[in-house]
Amino acid sequence: MVNTEEKLYSLFCHASGLFFPILGPLIILLFKKDSLFVRNHAREALIFQLAIYIVTYLALWTTFILIGFILVPLLVIFSLVTILMAIIRTIEGKSYHYPITGKWAKKL
């Protein structure tokens, strides 16, 4: 059974994507080594946030050919929806795997 402290750490990993991505899950992953539940959520959040950061950066470069004006808002909406879904699953005490990057996180 997952306790409240583990849920809070995991919630922080996912919610940090809204405020200071990459740094939050990285800190939790480095310092919280005793809980498998927290480590799994931190790894999932870190890989997802890195991927979104890179893809958004590349999409910003495509604004010169006018495709980025469509891609960037879609990426932001996709990111917000998936982060909110991860937060809800974490509050329920369940595991969450982000779409696309979930397979990479399982391999690590």
**Strand fraction:** under 5%
Q: Give the number of helices.
A: 5
Largest β-sheet summary = none
CA gyration radius, whole angstroms: 14 Å
Q: What structural category do the secondary elements indicate?
A: mainly alpha
User: What order do the helices and strands follow?
Assistant: HHHHH
What is the β-strand count?
0
| Count of the separate structural domains | 1
Overall residue-averaged pLDDT value: 88
Membrane topology: Multi-pass membrane protein
Subcellular location: Membrane
Protein name: DUF4870 domain-containing protein
Organism: Paenactinomyces guangxiensis
Task: Write up this protein.
- This is DUF4870 domain-containing protein.
- Pfam families: MamF_MmsF (PF09685).
- Keywords: Membrane, Transmembrane, Transmembrane helix.
- Its main location: membrane.
- The protein is mostly helical and 108 residues long.
- It has one domain (4-107).
- The chain contains 5 helices and no strands.
- The longest helix has 26 residues, at 36-61.
List strands and helices in order, with pairings.
Elements: H1 4-19, H2 23-31, H3 36-61, H4 68-91, H5 102-107
Helix pairs in contact: 1-2, 1-3, 1-4, 2-3, 3-4
Characteristics:
mainly alpha; 75% helix; single chain; 108 residues; transmembrane helix
Summarize the structure.
This protein has helices at residues 4-19, 23-31, 36-61, 68-91, 102-107. With 108 residues, it is an all-alpha fold.
